[in-house]
């Protein structure tokens, strides 16, 4: 807070695109209010998406300040965890032995880590991605687990450290040095907290082996939503676009893309305290899309956006599933899908 209070000029660049800051005031205003209980708890209204960081002319990181405020609130016992029970239970179950799986063959140093949302919504795509990876790298492994992003973003530092520590220790013990991710959120967590690993998105690996194709006719136009965890990951963004084009689609960019992409509404579990967040934010993206199907590399983003406009995941295009009006998968079906992957026979 001290750094923000000393250096934020309240220029308003971060306030204009952000509904949270429009309500709370500039980062300077928030910092000047100090570490009161009320001010700390207000940070749970921020999606931690990092758009404020991207547009700050002073190079400041309001999102880091707000995450720190969440951490302080949790340390003081101020956070009402009952509001976030659905997310925390999801994380707990996803990291349990019932759904966790390590398929690590002899000589394996690279594993595919698909995260939580993609296995729950598109288990067949996860299997197909793994098969393609095995063709390129026969000793590649598969790890089904949770990276702990939910606890991290809620400010539950001790719980996150323990959960992530168990995961990273297990992988190190088994000789893993490279992790290929499908979830942008996992990519960010693993890079920031697993410095010993080389973390790359599976989309970059696939794009490197995919021949570019000519753009299709205007009848096959889509637009791309860059997930906010990939905001500062141009390599992943470029790979997704190359894969989309290789499937015969022409891309028309959203006004908000790349470093200035918008959060779909799921970031930071804001829905736990502001129940209209997903509807509001996905509606903004839908308005920018203007009827064009929206493709994302994040399954959670796809689910949010499809409630407002036709949307899909890049793997849908890769595997010729283009029903952009399909409804999100139910919670029960997600767990069945993850169990299917947990028990799938793989060689």
From TrEMBL:
Keyword Iron belongs to the record: yes
A GO CC annotation given for this chain: plasma membrane
Signal sequence range: none
Span of domain 4Fe-4S ferredoxin-type: 5-60
MF annotations from Gene Ontology: 4 iron, 4 sulfur cluster binding; metal ion binding; oxidoreductase activity
UniProt keyword list: 4Fe-4S, Iron, Iron-sulfur, Metal-binding, Oxidoreductase
Span of domain Cysteine-rich: 111-188, 222-302
Record Pfam families: CCG, Fer4_8
SUPFAM superfamilies reported in the protein's UniProt record: alpha-helical ferredoxin
Name this polypeptide is given: Rhodanese-like domain/cysteine-rich domain protein
Protein species of origin: Trichlorobacter lovleyi (strain ATCC BAA-1151 / DSM 17278 / SZ) (Geobacter lovleyi)
């Amino acid at each position: 807070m001290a750094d923000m209070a000393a250096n934020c000029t309240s220029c308003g660049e971060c306030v204009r695109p952000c509904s949270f800051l429009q309500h709370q005031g500039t980062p300077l205003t928030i910092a000047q209010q100090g570490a009161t209980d009320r001010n700390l708890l207000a940070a749970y209204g921020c999606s931690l998406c990092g758009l404020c960081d991207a547009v700050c002319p002073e190079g400041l990181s309001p999102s880091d300040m707000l995450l720190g405020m969440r951490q302080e609130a949790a340390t003081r016992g101020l956070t009402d965890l009952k509001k976030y029970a659905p997310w925390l239970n999801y994380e707990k179950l996803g990291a349990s032995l019932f759904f966790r799986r390590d398929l690590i063959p002899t000589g394996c140093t690279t594993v595919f880590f698909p995260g939580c949302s993609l296995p729950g919504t598109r288990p067949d795509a996860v299997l197909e991605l793994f098969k393609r990876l095995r063709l390129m790298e026969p000793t590649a492994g598969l790890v089904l687990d949770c990276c702990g992003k939910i606890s991290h973003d809620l400010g539950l530092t001790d719980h996150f450290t323990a959960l992530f520590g168990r995961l990273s220790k297990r992988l190190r013990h088994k000789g893993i040095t490279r992790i290929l991710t499908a979830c942008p959120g996992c990519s960010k967590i693993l890079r920031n907290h697993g410095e010993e690993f080389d973390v790359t998105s599976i989309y970059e690996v696939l794009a490197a082996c995919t021949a570019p194709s000519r753009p299709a006719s205007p009848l096959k136009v889509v637009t791309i939503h860059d997930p906010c965890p990939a905001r500062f990951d141009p390599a992943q963004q470029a790979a997704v676009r190359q894969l989309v084009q290789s499937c015969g689609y022409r891309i028309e960019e959203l006004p908000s893309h790349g470093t200035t992409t918008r959060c779909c509404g799921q970031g930071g579990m804001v829905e736990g305290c502001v129940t209209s967040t997903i509807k509001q934010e996905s509606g903004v993206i839908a308005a920018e899309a203007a009827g064009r199907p929206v493709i994302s590399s994040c399954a959670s983003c796809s689910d949010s956006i499809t409630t407002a406009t036709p949307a899909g995941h890049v793997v849908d295009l890769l595997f010729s599933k283009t029903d952009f009006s399909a409804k999100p998968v139910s919670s029960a079906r997600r767990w069945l899908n993850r169990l299917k992957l947990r028990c799938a026979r793989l060689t």
